Amino acid sequence: MTWIPYPRWVVAMGAVALLAPALDVGPAAAADDRRSAAVVRTDQGAVRGTISANHLSFQGIPYARPPLGELRWAPPQPGPVWTGVRDATRPGAACAQLKGLPMDRPSESEDCLHLNVTTPRTIARTPRPVMVWLHGGDFRFGRGDVYGGPRLAVDGDVIVVTVNYRLGALGFLAHPALAGPGGSTGNFGLQDQQAALRWVRRNVAAFGGDPGNVTLFGQSAGATSVCGQLAAPASAGLFHRAILQSNSCANPIQTRAEGVGAAEEFASRIGCTDPGTVAACLRGRDPARLIETVGYPGTGVDLGPVVDGRTLPVDPAAALVTGRLHPVPVLTGMNRDESRLVVWGMERAGLNCPEPSSGPSSEPPSPGPPSPEPASCPLTDDQYRDQVRAMFGDRAEEVLARYPRDDKQFASETLGAVLTDHDYAEPIYSAALAFARQVPTFMYEFAEQDAPFFTEGPEPTFPVGAYHCAELPYLFTVDYAEALTSTQRRLSSDLVRTWSDFARTGRAGWPRLRADAPYVRVFAGRSGTTDFAAAHSYDFWRSLH
């Protein structure tokens, strides 16, 4: 099967605080302090956050030492300690990355291992559930503070923690020359996430949270991260529920050999080829050069979680089949039109516009950084068929027969349906059924057809529907998308209530998924249920395996 030529875009407060004395504070004392000021003592020192009308926020808290110098490509180390009160009113730097989707911002920082905590301003009688968010972004883009916690924290009555973790080569370069004393390398980003979870276990009680009720949730690459933590021995006991949005634990990650091969390709591209000096050479490259070499999906080097024998002794996809994941309740699902974002990415990069030698290729094209004024050329019927043939080879005619062109919709919508059902629906539903054989599992589909879109970038030439990332403005306070309407705010309340109730109880408010009773909850203007398998041609795609 050859590459389909499109970029893999699958992907990424408040008033002035009053100072209170920095005393030793457990949960009760911390609650007293929050009546007058956003000051909380962690095991590293006191932090002063921001007080708003209905919530408190603490941003840029370092949960590990900055991974600089010899700590580049090393496991995260315990965070710094300080005296006095540390300012936590502004987010820390994002981990080094190029510009990705509109919510992403470029960064060259390696001093980026920070987290953000949002709490309701009211005092609870009992500790609140904790929800730890892992952002998406293809393991090369994203930052935690983009996803503001007030909506989920206040309306859901939970503590929200968002996390930065190392990305790209700095987070996932599995080069043998960088191996530590235990012989493993790579997966530094996953280790960062574990360090953040350990910080939560030690400190969240001071913010009013329950360290014995932690939900780990993530979207896209963040969901893949949750899969990794479900399989990682060192994550056992650090979280008690899991929410996976728009990705599947049934998708295999890189084998050790594949991870080493990608790392060696990266070293070659960056000019570090001498076996005797490759480690020193890599350590001598500045972050800008490292992230430039990783590049964009499709043309750079694909780095991500790898079966390294230590952080991940087994592929989460294999662990799912054999029942070796941590046994916690699972809420999993997807957006109805996930891959329309990919098709918009094709437009955004000008890939549909005529070129002297355009057409499908066995190699993905170079999307490069988005042009400030990209052309918006609609996908044609011929281009749709060419894309399908490039991707599915000798099975393409079956796919085209199953997804024929219809003049009632754009070619981009049809291609989006093919990619959504192949890349998302089949693996997510397969994983959900596998989870359901082992743990309480609840499945959803977000299907709002008029979800707010990005305020930055070209206007799509077709309806984007419930695209990849469309549910995020309903859960988080964000500034990269259009504001929610009053109708959308009601749907937001429905999602927030479901996510927070699941965090609180491990139940979702609808029947558990079972093979003989595959209930899938639909979130839309008119919510309900759906025959998910039929709607996404599940049996057809299974037959193509």
Task: Give the helices and strands, then pairings.
Layout: H1 27-34, E1 39-41, E2 46-48, E3 50-51, E4 55-62, E5 85-87, E6 114-120, E7 128-134, H2 150-156, E8 159-163, H3 168-172, H4 188-203, E9 209-219, H5 221-231, E10 241-245, H6 256-269, H7 278-284, H8 287-294, H9 316-322, E11 330-335, H10 340-348, H11 381-392, H12 396-402, H13 411-436, E12 441-446, H14 472-475, H15 486-505, E13 520-523, E14 528-529, H16 532-535, H17 538-543
Parallel strand pairs: 2-5, 7-8, 7-9, 9-10, 10-11, 11-12, 12-13
Antiparallel strand pairs: 1-2, 3-4, 4-6, 6-8, 13-14
Helix pairs in contact: 2-15, 5-9, 10-13, 11-12, 11-13
Task: Characterise the protein shown here.
- Helices cover 31% and strands 13% of the residues.
- By secondary structure, the protein is α/β, with parallel strands linked by helices.
- The strands form two sheets. The protein has an eleven-stranded mixed beta sheet with strand order 3-4-6-8-7-9-10-11-12-13-14, sandwiched between helices. A three-stranded mixed beta sheet has the order 1-2-5.
- Helix 11 (381-392) packs across helix 12.
- The longest helix has 26 residues, at 411-436.
- The protein is globular and about 65 Å long.
Summarize the structure.
The protein is 31% helix and 13% strand. It is α/β, with parallel strands linked by helices and 545 residues long.
Rg of Cα set? 23 Å
Question: What is the count of helical runs?
Answer: 17
- Terminal residue distance: 12 Å
The level of helicity is 25-40%
Structural class: alpha/beta
Question: Strands of the biggest beta sheet: in what spatial order?
Answer: 3-4-6-8-7-9-10-11-12-13-14
The averaged pLDDT comes out at 90
Percentage beta strand: 5-15%
Number of β-strand runs = 14
Oligomer: single chain
Main sheet record = 11 strands, mixed
